[in-house]
From TrEMBL:
A Pfam short name: Transglut_core
Keywords: Membrane, Transmembrane, Transmembrane helix
TM spans (from-to): 6-23, 35-58, 97-114, 146-169
Name this protein carries in UniProt: Transglutaminase-like domain-containing protein
Source domain of life: Bacteria
Domain Transglutaminase-like: from-to ranges: 288-351
InterPro entries in the cross-refs: Papain-like_cys_pep_sf, Transglutaminase-like
Signal peptide: none
Presence of keyword Ribosomal protein: no
Protein source organism: Cohnella abietis
Record bears the keyword Disulfide bond: no
Amino acid sequence: MLDANLVTWLLVIVVVFSLIQGVRRGASGSVRQLLFFLVGAVVAILAVVLSAMAAWAVSPHLQTWLLERSLVRPEPNTSLFKQFGYTALSGLRDLPLFRFAALFLVFHTIIRLATALFTRVLASVISFPFSIVPTGGSVSRSVGGLIGTALGTGRALLFTSLLFAYCALFPQGPMTDYIQQSTLYREVASQVIRPAAGNMLEKQLPVFAQAMSSELDQLWQKRYDVIDADLPDDIVQAAISVTKGKDGDEDKARALYDWVGSRVTYDNEKVKAYEEQGDWWEQNPEHTFTTRKGVCIDYARLYAAMARAVNLDVRVVTGLGYDGRGGYGPHAWNEVYLTEQQRWLPLDSTWAKSGNWFDTSDFTDTHIRQGGITG
């Protein structure tokens, strides 16, 4: 089964190295090392399970506590520490997977620190009877070699599991094809890892990773809450003028939708520069307001700035938009909270010139929320 693949040789080296260690340590030393490995593995699994249970139980309480705090968006000129704190706390409040992951890391760290000494003591107590067995002699060293081989096999299985998880998470990753070319890896994965894990790693892990990636995108998008918080006077005055005489959140939101959608022109040159040369420049709402040009994210950020100027609760949403040719591409739009109706109203000012995209019934058919939500 040996081949020229580096992964194959790494797995073999792990087993051979453990075998040599076992021969050198003898029976008693090898048993002690094996028990340390097994106890450590059991404690590690228990720590993961307990941490997940604790995070799951505490998560809704943390969200409720954060909602009761009524986080205030910091001013643009505030310290980086306060900006980071607002982004982190609002992320914990709004993003369930991010909140679960953060709590899991906290509980897992606490549990592992608390059980570190216990693990060593327990392994030492269990292995104590073997410490009185002589380590020398051919029999002891042969037994030590067998135990070392078993320990090496366990380490190789653990290493293979990590590689298997990597391949499941990144099927198009830079090393995935090379890893899967290893004969020994394929054999262990098909005979041991896949039957033991079932569909959990191959099916559920990529789904979780994609959802987590989406939430991290949302967390990144929350920076707009800070950098766009400073509303220029011309944007404020324009928003007040546009919504003058409008009663209720929906009427104000509609007036701003009509204004942004009809006044701003889509910047095809900006898209072309990005697609052909990889050049991207991020413009703030003031720039979009002044030049009357931008792409979807610029429309959405300008709309959000004007909506906030007239005290509307608004957020920027990123995801995928239907391209009219049977596919989807990166897109951004807005949602406005209607106090009277207690719901979020979706709107897409970028598409306003092509039809009515203000709270339409088929909005979710053409807009797939995948990235961030801010506000």
